[in-house]
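Re: Re: ligand-bound prediction request (bumping)

Still looking for help on this. To restate: I need the protein modeled with glycinamide ribonucleotide bound, output as structure tokens. Inputs repeated here so nobody has to scroll up.
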Amino acid sequence: MTTPASTQLKPMKKRIVIFASGNGTNTQNIIKYFQNSTHAQVVCVLSNNKNAKVIDRSLDLNIEALSFTKDEMLAPKGLLCLINKRKPDLLVLAGFLLKFPEIIIDAYPNKVVNIHPALLPKFGGKGMYGHHVHRAVVENKETHSGITIHYVNNQYDKGEIIFQKKTTIAPQDTPKDVAAKVQLLEHQYLPKVIEEILLKPQLH
Ligand code: GAR
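Reply:
Sorry for the wait, this slipped through. Here it is.
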């Protein structure tokens, strides 16, 4: 006997909350990737900077976008409550440039992931973000850079690595050139890796 379509249970879409501090090209790209997905959706974008471009980019795509203050970040129970209410399956740090609160990491074990614009463990740690990373890569005369997607733990850029992808650095490449190459990889792979994580059995 078949169940009538009207009574069949629709699988619940996985819910993604994104944290971002600035421009938000990755956030915009993730939102668009999941716009027509049957598996997952971005439900909220949170920023520590009320003037960040990521807020406008998200609102333009009809996604709830909120900012929080440094004080709210330092006493993050309210922030945790706000996150809990969105019932997320995954928290994605996509260009979030502050240390992520421990209380939130502890509340969401193995459900907080970060994208880092280099091949960790190289060029990670406090102060290593955005253009600082790309400048260090060029100054160190690296022949390769890339992206790392990893779980977030209580140490900067030290959580378990989920995915890495390399790109070649030419001797004449400037930090801006490296940033452009890395951003291409981020846009190509981050949404797909998020989708794979969400489809893994332990998150069901
Ligand atoms: C991205 O390159 C991301 O990897 C990096 O910030 C950029 C944000 O770009 N994150 C870090 O450096 C974290 N340590 P976006 O705002 O255009 O998405």
